[in-house]
Amino acid sequence: MLIPHRTWPELGDATESVAVVPIGSTEQHGPHLPEGTDSLIAEALAREASDRTGHLCTPTLPIGVSSHHRQFPGTMWVEPPMFRDFVESFTRNLTTHGIDRVVYVNAHGGNVVHLREVGRRLHQDETAFAIEWMWNESIPDLIDDAFEVTGPHGGPKETAMIMHIAPDLVRTGRLEDARDGGATFEYDAERVHGATTFYDTIEHSPNGVFGDQTDATPEIGRQLFEAATDQLEALLEWLEERPLEGLFPDPDLEPDSAP
Ligand SMILES: [Zn+2]
Predict the structure, then answer these.
(1) Model confidence over 61-105: pLDDT tens digits?
(2) Which of 12, 29, 59, 123 could disulfide-link to 33, CB 3.0 to 4.6 Å?
């Protein structure tokens, strides 16, 4: 049930307590994918899961934490505290409509820790149970099997997803440029003696992307989309079945309760 397409009397009759909130970014995705890649992916997955389950789907939040891409034209972002406060306020206010369980359908890695922090705050004061769900983390084996060199950003997995969701937006003539002008290293190789030294994307990828984009196909994109939606649907079912008390923090231990 997509909230922006509904009237208030229709929504007034709804008794839903679960909502999905698509969250993306507007940031560079190399020479072959649009800046709205993450928002398009998050929105398509959230809307499909909402259609299948009947749970509420909010508008997409299209700006995230993306300053690590700021050297590239078109990248937009807000500072992390602003992002966290906005998402927290927005989620708190959803509870006035009876929503007490929220899944942040996320497609941008830079948002992950911040959405976890927002969820922690809401959990701690028992306002709502809000969890972050990153689409590619739900299907890691499928992604590993599909591509030789996946890459953490703008690689074949996102390319395949956009080929499936919005094929007209993929610059297919630039796939080889994306691969040859980017980086194909594995992310962990960027650790130096145990420290993560990576701050900005441009330090390691001249064109902003990683992986071998020429491995992407619309058919693989369809398979990833279906598999990730299945995972999201299962998560929503799991969430709906949990009693609310079981989702909130356990009480503090009594001082004399030590075994
Ligand atoms: Zn992305």
Answers:
(1) 999 999 999 999 999 999 999 999 999 999 999 999 999 999 999
(2) 29
DSSP run (H or E) holding 240:
helix 218-241
Ligand 1: centre distance to CA 41 (Å): 9
Cα(154) to centroid(ligand 1), Å: 6
Domains of the chain, with CATH numbers? 3-240 (3.40.50.10310)
Q: Is 142 helix (H, G, I), strand (E, B) or coil?
A: helix
Residues 31/173, Cβ–Cβ less than 8 Å: no
Q: From ligand 1's centre to the CA of 242, what distance in Å?
A: 32
**Is the pLDDT confidence value at 188 over 90?**
no
**Residue 46 corresponds to which tokens in the numbers above?**
């959230």
Residues with CB under 5 A from ligand 1 (ion): 37-38
Confidence label for 190 from pLDDT (cuts 50, 70 and 90): low
- Span 1-22, pLDDT tens digits: 999 999 999 888 877 899 999 9
DSSP β-bridge partners for residue 61: 23
